[in-house]
Amino acid sequence: MRKNRFNQRDSSKYLRKSKSLQIKQQGLEKSNLIVFGLKNLDRSQGQNFEDWEINTLLSKALERISGLCSLTLQQAISSQIIKIYGKEIPPKSDFYLPIHLSEDTEWASIRIQGKERIIGFIEQGFIFQIVFLDKKHLFYPSKKKHT
Q1: What is the rounded distance in angstroms from the CA atom of residue 60 to the CA atom of residue 135?
Q2: Can you tell me whether residue 93 is helix, strand or coil?
Q3: Cβ neighbours of residue 97 closer than 8 Å, sequence gap 6 or more
Q4: Residue closest to 99 by CA, chosen among 47, 143, 42, 53
Q5: pLDDT 10s per residue in the chain (147 long)?
Q6: Using DSSP, how many helices (H) and how many strands (E) does the chain show?
Q7: Distances (CA, A) of 57 to 44, 65, 112, 133, 142
Q8: Interior angle at CA 69, CA 68 and CA 75, nearest 5
Q9: Is residue 63 within 8 Å of 113, Cβ to Cβ?
Q10: Could you count the other beta carbons within 10 Å of the beta carbon of residue 124?
Q11: Largest separation between any pair of C-alpha atoms in the chain
């Protein structure tokens, strides 16, 4: 009798339901919050994580990234945390195009504080691929204001 009880179990009771299906049934839209990638990090230009850690910038950068993970790209741009630069590295930049990236890369930056920036590009509309750490604002140098 005991063996029959196990044979009678219905396997459909154990299937997991998709969370995205639940979102669609409730009439909600799934938003693409910003996520980050490091596969394109160029360690030959700018600074490395160790340098940013010594200068107490790494923790500030991680705090900024943590906050951005709860925003969409449009929210981050309108909050002036992320800035889209365009497809060309400026002529007066201290940086050059890494060989593993194409020339039509659309550059963007994340403002950490003061001059400090994280430089990268947006992939698939919500993935910020980090390419450079720029603590002196030398990727896209600008003239000093109010001096």
Answers
A1: 12
A2: coil
A3: 89, 103, 105
A4: 42
A5: 555 555 555 655 555 555 555 545 555 556 799 999 999 999 999 999 999 999 999 999 999 999 999 999 999 999 999 999 999 998 899 999 999 999 999 999 999 999 999 999 999 999 999 999 999 999 998 776 665
A6: 5, 5
A7: 19, 12, 8, 10, 21
A8: 50
A9: no
A10: 8
A11: 90
Using DSSP, state whether 55 is helix, strand or coil: coil
pLDDT for 142 equals 77
pLDDT for 130 equals: 97
Closest CA to 73 of 105, 34, 121, 118: 34
Return the CATH number of the domain spanning residue range 31-134: 3.30.2310
- Judge contact between 64 and 112, C-beta under 8 A: yes
Q: What share of the chain is helix, strand, coil (3-state, %, to 5)?
A: 25, 20, 50
For tokens 């923790």, what's the residue? 59
How many residues comprise the chain?
147
